[in-house]
């Protein structure tokens, strides 16, 4: 753990523990369509219709949204417990590039599995790209989290599994830990022998 930290900003992928999320997402992320979708610049209907037009065969909205949510996984109980423990010692924030369909889906998973209505329960504040109109790795989204919450960057840690997002955080003056392949947030916070 980095010394002097009072605030921690987490990425949703790191919290959920989605393996190979970057590989899956980078394959999809070749089009500006996904940037617009994640910044809230297009409606669900526009997103679905664009994908329907791009499909080689007829595809329903339900099929598109089901496939879109297929990358989401369960919330490991141990990670939720770790967030609860960390909240006793740090201010916790969630900063995620996501969209309204995924937000509904991961909150639904959380409710079905644990009876918890949304991720906001575990964080002081949640920043989702489609709600704030910005995406990582833009340093401006990190500055927004700092400014909104009066955080000093030197006392703030960002944890993410994408090197470009780590670079954006560092450009904003935030300390950062890159979750390499196979690493989890438990590895960062486990007690040293």
Structural class: alpha/beta
Q: How many angstroms separate the termini?
A: 14 Å
The CATH architecture can be given as 3-Layer(aba) Sandwich
What's the tally of helices? 11
Write the element-wise H/E pattern from the N-terminal end onward: EHHHHHHEHEHHEHEH
What is the strand content?
5-15%
How many separate domains make up the residues?
1
Main attributes of the structure:
193 residues; 5-stranded parallel β-sheet; alpha/beta
Provide a descriptive summary of the structure in words:
- β2 (91-96), α7 and β3 form a beta-alpha-beta unit.
- It is built from eleven helices and five strands.
- The two termini are 14 Å apart.
- The chain has a five-stranded parallel β-sheet with strand order 3-2-1-4-5.
- The chain is an alpha/beta fold and 193 residues long.
- The model is unreliable at 18-30 (pLDDT under 50).
- The protein has a single domain (1-193), classed as HAD superfamily/HAD-like (Rossmann fold).
- It is globular, with a radius of gyration of 17 Å.
- The chain has helices at residues 12-16, 21-28, 32-38, 44-54, 61-69, 77-86, 100-114, 129-132, 139-148, 163-171, 185-189; strands spanning 7-10, 91-96, 125-128, 156-160, 175-178.
């Amino acid at each position: 753990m980095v010394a002097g930290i009072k605030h921690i900003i987490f990425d949703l992928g790191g919290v959920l523990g989605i393996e190979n999320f970057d590989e899956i997402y980078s394959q999809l992320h070749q089009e500006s369509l996904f940037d617009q979708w994640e910044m809230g610049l297009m409606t669900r209907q526009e997103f679905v219709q664009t994908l329907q037009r791009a499909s080689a065969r007829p595809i329903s909205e339900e099929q598109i949204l089901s496939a879109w949510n297929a990358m989401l996984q369960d919330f490991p109980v141990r990670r939720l417990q770790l967030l609860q423990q960390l909240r006793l010692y740090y201010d916790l924030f969630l900063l995620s590039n996501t969209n309204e369909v995924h937000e509904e889906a991961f909150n639904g998973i959380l409710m079905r599995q644990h009876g918890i209505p949304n991720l906001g329960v575990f964080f002081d504040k949640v920043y989702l790209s489609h709600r704030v109109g910005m995406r990582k790795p833009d340093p401006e989204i990190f500055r927004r989290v700092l400014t909104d919450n009066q955080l000093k960057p030197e006392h703030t840690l960002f944890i993410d599994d994408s090197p470009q997002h780590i670079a954006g955080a560092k450009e904003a003056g935030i300390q950062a830990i890159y979750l390499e392949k196979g690493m989890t947030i438990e590895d960062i916070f486990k007690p040293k022998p």
